[in-house]
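Supplementary notes for students who missed Thursday's class. We covered one full example, reproduced here. Read the sequence, then the structure, then the short commentary at the end.
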Amino acid sequence: MTLWRTRSSTTVYENPWVRVREDAVDRPDGSAGIYGVVEVRNPAVFIVPVTADDEVVLVEVDRYTTGVSLEVPAGGSDGEDLLLAAQRELREETGLVADSWERVGSMFALNGICNAPEHVFLARVLRPSGEPTEHAVEGITAVRTVPWTGVMAMVADGTITDGETVAALMYAAIALRRIA
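Structure (token representation):
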């Protein structure tokens, strides 16, 4: 049972990827309020690619909203099967394919203001795809391979600031039994 009650909902913006709505609500304490919600139209996928040498493949992305960011490969599922979307995103962003795939977790981004489901995959047994990447379209400026311990240090020192990447790495660490 939710403590919130929606009185009315109005779409204030939408495009093929997101819908923004403004809801008139009754808050948990019973007072009236307004709540803005961003709904992502399709779930996103996040991939933690780990090499045979225990390195994580990361992409450096120039984000319109926040600038340059070091992240795991990720993207929208565009309505397709989540595993197929993860495989496509890995190939498009890194030029790699993986022979081993494991779904290691699910989460929501910015759940205080968004309904944005996300699914995390661990990809192993990596090899070049032989297909062109979409770096120019995606804003990817580099693909980097970093030892697992180095990636954890980059989270600790603030080099990796993307919250979804931090969460995806946590799911991967649990799956890989790096933490209990």
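Commentary. DSSP finds four helices and eleven strands in the chain. The chain has a mean pLDDT of 96. If anything here is unclear, bring it to office hours.
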